[in-house]
Design a protein that fits this description.
By secondary structure, this protein is an all-alpha fold. It contains six helices and no strands. Helix 1 packs antiparallel against helix 2, helix 4 (about 90-110) runs antiparallel to helix 5 and helix 5 runs antiparallel to helix 6. The mean pLDDT is about 75.
């Protein structure tokens, strides 16, 4: 149980720090105001997402810290400090592969465009995270990735007026 609390603490801290870096990165986005001075620009959605991610990461850290403090109060401090955390190699490998996929996605985003790169990224992440794979899963994964990519592209392009990279095929 204590290992799970420490993992949650580490994951929460990771996402909190990632959100801070992500928020700082939003300032390099070129500002585009499709609605005039209504306060909406191309920066606002990424900044809102960064704040939400930071709040969720921080809440995970706080909850884990309280759980760990309570657990350590119940045990003898010397006994609690002698435990070690083991990292499951399978989980660590998936984590490293997910980071690599995200890096490739960022690199291909401008070159292939939003839809193609997002379909590839979503499909790869779903296959990585699903416990078992079969033909039905593969078909569903590709169809789901296509639907989500086109839906997000349509919302951003047509409803919000924010232009996403079109890519090599012009969409």
């Amino acid at each position: 149980m204590e290992q799970k609390i420490k993992k949650d603490l580490g994951i929460g801290l990771f996402f909190f720090l990632l959100a801070i870096a992500y928020f700082a990165g939003t300032f390099s986005i070129e500002s585009y105001n499709p609605f005039g001075d209504a306060g909406l620009s191309s920066k606002i959605v990424p900044q809102i997402l960064a704040v939400i991610m930071a709040v969720l990461g921080l809440s995970t850290v706080i909850q884990s810290a309280f759980k760990l403090k309570k657990r350590n109060a119940d045990k003898n401090f010397a006994e609690a400090s002698g435990t070690s955390v083991r990292i499951n190699r399978n989980v660590f490998g998936k984590f490293v592969f997910a980071i690599a996929l995200l890096t490739v996605y960022i690199f291909l985003f401008d070159k292939l465009g939003f839809i193609i790169s997002t379909v590839l990224y979503l499909s790869a992440m779903i296959f990585l995270l699903l416990p078992r794979k079969n033909a039905k899963t593969g078909i569903f994964t590709v169809l789901f990735s296509l639907a989500v990519s086109f839906l997000v592209y349509t919302v951003f392009n047509n409803l919000l007026g924010l232009i996403l990279p079109r890519g090599i095929f012009g969409y």
